[in-house]
């Protein structure tokens, strides 16, 4: 009897041991943050987790069918639809409402253009919160710094995108006005975080700072699907141009033009470089694969009549692109009528790889744009060592596009902006290029010119965000 | 902790006992009523464990010390105390106890007498569950039996889930199921269906093995189960053997079943359908070609336009363009799909034992053919319950269930996901063209019968190993083991440990043959899903009982640990080279995945019960639970209860009131909890399943919440129990259950990187009154009539939501969560009927603020359109017995609730689904044809883009109903005849369930899950049974 009691008592005592372990359980298909990233290899995968969200945003719910996208399609189409050079044929209301400037504070568009970049910035900040504690073995320092640089560069890019979507362009606004910018997300936030808007000045300073930090860390090697030093420098040039900091814009652009490994497309290869991975101008493109793309909300599906057909050429866009039959760019257009209600002229920049319209790597920045930045910055009075005259950059592009082209000796701002429309159509620039230069765009859907100060030139802050943070000021007119 | 251990040790060691000199006594115990000997009566020396039980002839012998008192007790009889004198033979008669007053009840971690129980609990014995043996699961048998308990069958498919709720709805997002505890071990329950195929693991239990079920309702009863008790607890006790002659029973039942309500899901006949189609085509012309439907349309009331529309409707009616074919039959497809089901059940058991060892063993086979050909359920079970008393202080036992179930069926949509699956049986009743015959004249299947991509319902519903089969099957294996040891260390102290191992493995196989409707695109698809759950449980409980004079004290202290592991393997194959071999190996691999999740719980419990002179009772309990599902800061939670009762009938001033058998008032207050469903909701997590280009990609998917805690409920309960004239007992209770810290998905700023996180925010209040009455109306030697009645009011009001904001949930936001409103409130545009002038549907533009009408549903604002939770419900059972005959019938009722008729939305499509769906029979001669018609259904408009058929209050229907849930007539053969046949008891019975229903809306089955969502599902059935039960 006593023996038994002793055994029982001992058994009890043993049971109470290991209480803590017993109550620590974790899943088999996910890891807590602290265990997820423990090496530079893990860090690389985590950075990939940011890139993949730019093309396939699914929140890890195992469901690839969320009908919205960022660089995969919606963001690329946005500026061209609002800019009026692209327009919808049929409307499935996937992205076509942008052409009609249809977006309220409770619309999915406002929400998703906010949700995806900020969620990805959240992923970046989560990684950055532990990146300094990571155990970096010798020999891995360069890879580690490059990955860290990518995070800063991407964070800047996404803030820049959100700023263009949700705040006025710097050229059209008082940079120091309260709430003129967007919320800056530069750390890991608690779940009850209530964001507020910075000024435009603070916003763009933050963007430039992150880009500069990134430049100090990034590799200059070509790295397909990843942002490198040159792409970051090109983006920095773009940001400076938006801020009319012409010297800095020109100097950054000139560095890329002089020193980067990229080369302009030529008349001979211009029709073949689309739908190809890692073409010669591509400084930063985002990888698409059959398993990870924006599927029906990808730019390829928007820009073909066999897809949604919501991004065909508008009349003005078609006329502009085809005004010179010697321009190879006029041949990158086709009449498509796979479905009668979607017939129209479509760009062939997104033909899809392997016959799959979902597979087009969206290009974030490519060399032609850098030439165009340099030309514009120079024309606006920018100076930088090694820079050429504005017309030199335009001539370089045109030589490689127009058969029998003879150089011009001078260009105007309109020449440069027209060249941008022709070269960068369907790549997500048009409306901002016009507005930041104080010009209007013509919207065929609304049948009127749209100025930068039209309240719906920018998106409303999603209502769910202003509900969560009452101090988050809504844009005027919403 | 160490202190507690020392205390326990001290209790173990501190006391020893000495027995005085003994002498042998013997005797017989008989029932006062008929003087028959009673086997199994416990004969114990008062205040000790020394004792025995009577044998089959009611005889006992025992060695007792002199000057002690013997206590004779037996369930259902009044105990008797007899002092031991010099006499050595004691013949004792026991009187029947007034039913309900002092039965022994299984309660949390022990048993108690009903009279001394201060909480709210109700026991249902197996014999009260007779007649409902077709119920494939235990929960469904409780319908209408217990106040405060709502049981509903979700579908009529055999093996499908039931739903049980105790005292309303305790949660918004976490589980609302009660905790099931079988023989002292918490049991895994739940639905393990897939793709809308409902399947419940409770169906692995054999209801025949159940001896009694106790429902624990208030905190005093349930708080000992702490973090899992907020939705109440169902304690199941299985049968055990009794000392004496071995008893064998054989029981078999046969039965047939049909849909419970004939009018449910009837469709239009061929003539009416063609007429409707014609009108819908006229409508389509007036919508698309020459607008003339609405008053503002140019062609409105223009006879010439109407003439052209009518001509259009007559154009080429049989070129198949509109899904209209040359009528060649008038087929009732509902009758083709829903047939008469059959069921059979065989049960064999043996029980018995000696004063040392007793056993109960059973084997059972249950087989049900559902009302849809090819849907069936089979269950094989075997059970052995064994216990052995090795000496005065040590008793141990094992209880083992092995069970295997096989369930076959079709892809209904019991999961409440949006959409109607073309291949689901109910859908096919309406997508088959009523003008088409089932078979061609040559006897072959008419391949042109369907309006959807299903060519003929029987192509799918008659699985024959054909290339068009589409089948679902679930094979399940379960082993439920329970081992227990009971040590009576001292007369006042016993120690119990119980170990449970619950293993359940479910294999779901879904087969879409290569030429089947859904399988064609895959060229055959096989999906194999394996779910394995393993639950391990160990508990150690010390039980101290001591009576000091009139003070009676019981203390319970214990420790419990539980581990739950859940493993899934999912795999699938496509591109089958043959339809004849569905196994995955015969196709090309498509997907594969596996996952394991585990959750652990560790608990300390304590319970004190005290009563003074069986008059004043006080009880308190405490439980401390640690769960791996919670955030590190809130991992441990403490739940407690305090309760008291006063038995006024024991007071001197009432003890002379002969008419009053018992009068007790009681009150309790305490806390319970509910754990999050998600095992890992508190962890910040990275997902590893993604990729970027050729490389892996990982990213954060969930923020951590170290504060994540249980949902807590604060329960108050007042009640009284009254027994009068030895005829009537009644229990009346009021409960108020406040649930706080409900888990809600709170929206986060996207700057955090996340969309939502689980936080403990919401609040709910459930309250209600429960009344139970038991009356013995007539009781003579030959005739007896008893009535049991119960009544429950329900109210479940949302008190607090994140930021106080309304939350819309469900399909298209049709459910509203709003502070101050009932949970499961419908929120839809309000239907304003059909305009008699033009036949168009009308809606209230803004029902909360004006009476203005609109023709356009899209413009109509939603408003509250009733709630799913009923106001009150209950049941009434009458049992009459005469000379071996016994008739018992149970009516259940429910009033004040609503359902959302999702299938009805398809079957009242107003022409929108012209050419793909038939219409409900109640639309026959009930649609608008000409000005002045007062009808329920608008003018049909083919493919109407304005969608008057979309959800509105038109689809919210009352669930008020009264149902003859069960009626059983049985005859027990006279003993004299039976004994000549060398048997103890022979009983014959016929019974039926759901055989009569009154429903306010008789075209829809009113029994529905508590959220009121009528799914696209097989309607529940009525059953007729014949059975025989033999004991020998």
Most extensive chain interface and residues per partner: A-B, 71 and 65 residues
Tally the helices of chain B.
10
Q: Got a strand count of chain B?
A: 51
Briefly note the CATH topology name of chain A. Answer: Serine Threonine Protein Phosphatase 5, Tetratricopeptide repeat
State the low-pLDDT regions of chain B, or none: 1-20
Number of domains of chain A: 1
* SSE succession of chain A: HHEHHHEHHHHHEHEHEEEHHHHEEH
Q: Span between N and C termini of chain B?
A: 54 Å
Proportion in β-strands of chain A:
5-15%
What is the radius of gyration of chain B? Answer: 32 Å
Please report the first level of CATH classification, the CATH class of chain A.
Mainly Alpha
pLDDT under 50 segments of chain A (min length 5)? 59-65
Largest sheet of chain A: 2 strands, antiparallel
Structural class of chain A: mainly alpha
Structural class of chain B: mainly beta
Number of strands of chain A: 9
Q: Rg of chain A from C-alpha positions?
A: 25 Å
Q: What spatial form of chain B do the alpha-carbon principal axes imply? A: globular
Query: Which strand-content bin applies to the residues of chain B?
Result: over 45%
Family (chain B): Belongs to the TonB-dependent receptor family.
Membrane topology (chain B): Multi-pass membrane protein
InterPro entries (chain B): Beta-barrel_TonB, Beta-barrel_TonB_sf, CarboxyPept-like_regulatory, Plug_dom, Plug_dom_sf, TonB-dep_OMP_SusC/RagA, TonB-dep_OMP_SusC/RagA_CS, TonB-dep_rcpt-like
Domain TonB-dependent receptor plug (chain B): 116-233
């Amino acid at each position: 009897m006593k023996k038994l009691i002793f055994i029982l008592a001992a058994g009890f005592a043993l049971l109470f041991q290991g209480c803590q372990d017993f109550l620590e359980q974790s899943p088999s298909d996910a890891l807590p943050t602290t265990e997820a990233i423990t090496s530079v290899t893990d860090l690389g995968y985590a950075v990939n987790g940011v890139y993949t969200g730019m093309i396939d945003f699914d929140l890890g719910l195992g469901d690839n069918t969320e009908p919205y996208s960022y660089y995969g399609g919606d963001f690329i189409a946005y500026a061209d639809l609002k800019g009026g050079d692209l327009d919808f044929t049929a409307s499935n209301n996937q992205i076509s409402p942008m052409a009609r400037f249809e977006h309220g504070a409770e619309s999915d568009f406002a929400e998703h253009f906010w949700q995806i970049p900020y969620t990805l910035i959240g992923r970046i900040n989560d990684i950055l919160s532990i990146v300094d504690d990571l155990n970096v073995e010798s020999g891995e320092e360069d890879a580690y710094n490059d990955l860290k640089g990518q995070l800063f560069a991407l964070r800047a890019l996404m803030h820049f995108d959100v700023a263009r979507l949700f705040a006025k362009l710097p050229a059209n606004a008082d940079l120091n006005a309260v709430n003129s910018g967007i919320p800056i997300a530069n750390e890991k936030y608690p779940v009850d975080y209530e964001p507020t808007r910075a000024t435009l000045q603070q916003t763009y300073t933050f963007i430039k700072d992150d880009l500069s930090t990134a430049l100090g860390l990034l590799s200059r090697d070509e790295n397909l699907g990843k942002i490198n030093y040159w792409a970051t420098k090109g983006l920095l040039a773009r940001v400076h141009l938006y801020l009319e900091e012409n010297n800095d814009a020109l100097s950054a652009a000139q560095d890329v033009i002089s020193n980067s490994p990229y080369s302009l497309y030529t008349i001979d290869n211009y029709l073949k470089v689309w739908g190809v991975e890692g073409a010669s101008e591509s400084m930063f493109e985002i990888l698409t694969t059959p398993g990870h793309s924006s599927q029906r909300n990808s730019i390829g599906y928007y820009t073909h009549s066999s897809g949604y057909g919501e991004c065909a050429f508008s009349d003005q866009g078609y006329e502009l692109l085809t005004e010179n039959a010697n321009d190879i760019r006029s041949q990158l257009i086709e009449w498509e009528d796979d479905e009668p209600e979607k017939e129209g002229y479509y760009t062939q920049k997104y033909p899809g790889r392997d016959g799959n319209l979902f597979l087009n790597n969206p290009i974030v920045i490519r060399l032609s744009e850098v030439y165009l930045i340099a030309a514009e910055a120079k024309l606006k009075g920018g100076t930088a060592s090694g820079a050429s005259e504005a017309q030199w950059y335009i001539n370089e592009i045109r030589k490689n596009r127009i058969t029998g082209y003879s150089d011009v000796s001078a260009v105007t701002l309109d020449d440069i902006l027209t060249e941008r429309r022709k070269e960068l159509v369907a790549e997500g620039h048009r409306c901002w290029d016009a507005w930041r230069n104080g010009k209007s765009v013509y919207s065929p859907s609304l049948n009127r010119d749209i100025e930068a100060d039209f309240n719906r030139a920018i998106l409303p802050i999603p209502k769910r965000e202003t509900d969560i943070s009452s101090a988050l000021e809504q844009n005027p007119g919403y | 902790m160490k202190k507690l251990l020392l205390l326990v040790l001290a209790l173990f060691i501190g006391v020893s006992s000495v027995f005085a000199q003994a002498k042998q006594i013997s005797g017989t115990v008989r029932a006062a009523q008929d003087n028959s000997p009673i086997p199994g009566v416990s004969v114990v020396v008062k205040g000790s464990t020394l004792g025995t039980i009577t044998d089959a002839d009611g005889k006992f012998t025992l060695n007792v010390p002199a000057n002690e008192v013997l206590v004779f007790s037996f369930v259902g009889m009044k105990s008797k105390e007899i002092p031991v004198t010099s006499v050595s033979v004691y013949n004792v008669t026991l009187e029947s106890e007034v039913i309900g007053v002092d039965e022994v009840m299984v309660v949390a971690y022990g048993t108690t007498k009903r009279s001394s129980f201060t909480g709210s609990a109700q026991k249902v014995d197996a014999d009260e569950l007779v007649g409902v043996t077709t119920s494939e699961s235990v929960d469904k048998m409780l319908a209408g039996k217990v106040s405060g308990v709502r049981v509903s069958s979700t579908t009529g498919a055999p093996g499908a889930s039931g739903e049980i709720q105790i005292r309303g709805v305790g949660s918004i997002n976490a589980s609302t199921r009660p905790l099931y505890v079988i023989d002292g071990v918490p049991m895994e329950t739940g639905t393990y269906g897939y793709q809308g195929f409902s399947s419940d693991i409770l169906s692995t239990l054999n209801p025949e093995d159940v001896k009694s079920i106790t429902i624990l309702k208030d905190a005093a009863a349930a708080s000992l189960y702490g973090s899992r008790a907020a939705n109440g607890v169902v304690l199941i006790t299985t049968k055990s053997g009794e000392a004496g002659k071995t008893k064998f029973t054989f029981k078999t039942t046969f039965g047939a079943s049909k849909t419970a309500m004939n009018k449910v899901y009837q469709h239009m006949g061929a003539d009416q359908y063609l007429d409707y189609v014609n009108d819908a085509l006229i409508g389509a012309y007036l919508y698309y070609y020459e607008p003339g439907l609405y008053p503002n349309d140019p062609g409105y009331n223009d006879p010439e336009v109407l003439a052209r529309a009518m001509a259009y409707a007559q154009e080429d009616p049989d070129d198949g363009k509109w899904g209209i074919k040359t009528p060649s039959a008038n087929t009732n497809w509902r009758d083709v799909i829903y047939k008469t089901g059959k069921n059979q059940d065989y049960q064999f058991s043996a029980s018995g034992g000696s004063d040392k060892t007793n056993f109960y063993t059973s084997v059972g086979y249950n087989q049900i053919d559902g009302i849809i050909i090819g849907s069936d359920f089979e269950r094989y079970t075997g059970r052995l319950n064994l216990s052995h008393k090795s000496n005065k202080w040590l008793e141990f036992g094992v209880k083992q269930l092995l069970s295997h179930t096989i369930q076959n069926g079709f892809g209904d949509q019991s999961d409440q996901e949006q959409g109607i699956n073309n291949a689901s049986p109910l859908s096919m009743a309406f997508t088959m063209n009523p003008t088409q015959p089932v078979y061609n004249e040559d006897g072959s299947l008419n391949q042109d019968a369907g309006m959807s991509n299903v060519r003929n319902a029987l192509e799918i519903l008659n699985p024959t190993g054909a290339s068009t089969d589409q089948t679902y099957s679930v094979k399940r294996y379960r082993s439920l083991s329970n081992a227990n040891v009971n040590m009576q260390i001292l007369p006042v102290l016993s120690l119990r440990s119980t170990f449970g191992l619950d293993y359940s493995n479910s294999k779901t196989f879904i087969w879409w043959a290569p030429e089947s409707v859904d399988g064609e695109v895959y060229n055959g698809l096989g999906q194999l899903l394996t779910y394995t759950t393993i639950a391990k449980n160990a508990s150690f409980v010390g039980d101290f009982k001591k009576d000091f004079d009139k003070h009676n004290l019981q203390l319970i202290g214990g420790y419990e640990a539980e581990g739950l592991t859940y493993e899934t393997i999912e795999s699938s194959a496509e591109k089958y080279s043959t339809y004849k071999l569905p196994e995955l190996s015969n196709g090309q691999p498509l997907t594969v995945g596996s996952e394991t999740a585990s959750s652990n719980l560790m608990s300390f419990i304590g319970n004190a019960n005290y009563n003074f002179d069986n008059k004043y009772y006080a009880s308190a309990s405490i439980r401390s639970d640690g769960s791996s599902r919670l955030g590190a800061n809130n991992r441990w939670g403490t739940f407690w209860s305090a309760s008291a009762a006063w038995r006024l009938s024991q007071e001197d001033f009432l003890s002379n009131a002969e008419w009053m058998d018992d009068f007790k008032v009681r009150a309790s207050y305490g806390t319970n909890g509910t754990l999050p469903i998600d095992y890992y909701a508190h962890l910040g997590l990275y997902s590893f399943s993604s990729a970027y280009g050729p490389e892996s990609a990982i990213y954060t998917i969930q923020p951590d919440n170290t504060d994540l805690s249980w949902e807590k409920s604060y329960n108050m309960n007042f009640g009284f129990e009254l027994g009068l004239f030895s005829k009537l007992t009644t229990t009346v209770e009021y409960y108020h259950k406040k649930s706080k810290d409900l888990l809600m998905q709170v929206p986060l700023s996207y700057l955090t990187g996340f969309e939502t996180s689980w936080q403990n925010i919401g609040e709910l209040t459930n309250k209600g009154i429960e009344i139970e009455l038991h009356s013995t109306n007539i009781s003579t030697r030959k005739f007896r009539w008893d009535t049991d009645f119960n009544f429950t009011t329900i109210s479940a009001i949302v008190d607090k939501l994140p930021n106080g904001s309304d939350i819309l949930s469900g399909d298209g936001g049709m459910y509203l969560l709003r502070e101050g409103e009932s949970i499961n409130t419908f929120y839809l545009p309000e239907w304003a009927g059909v305009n008699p002038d033009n036949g168009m549907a009308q809606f209230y533009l803004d029902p909360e603020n004006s009476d203005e009408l609109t023709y356009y549903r899209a413009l109509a604002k939603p408003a509250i359109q009733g709630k799913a939770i009923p106001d009150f419900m209950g049941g009434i059972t009458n049992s009459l017995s005469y000379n071996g005959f016994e008739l018992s019938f149970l009516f259940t009722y429910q009033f004040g609730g609503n359902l959302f008729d999702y299938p009805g939305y398809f079957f009242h499509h107003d022409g929108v689904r012209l050419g793909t769906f038939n219409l409900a029979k109640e639309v026959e001669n009930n649609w608008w044809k000409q000005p002045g018609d007062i009808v329920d259904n608008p003018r049909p408009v083919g493919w109407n883009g304005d969608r008057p058929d979309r959800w509105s209050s038109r689809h919210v229907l009352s669930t008020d109903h009264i149902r003859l849930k069960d009626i059983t007539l049985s005859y027990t053969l006279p003993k004299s005849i039976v004994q000549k046949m060398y048997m103890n008891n022979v009983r014959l019975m016929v019974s039926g369930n759901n055989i009569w229903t009154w429903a306010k809306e008789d075209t829809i089955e009113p029994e529905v899950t508590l959220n009121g969502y009528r799914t696209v599902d097989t309607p529940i059935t009525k059953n007729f049974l014949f059975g025989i039960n033999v004991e020998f």
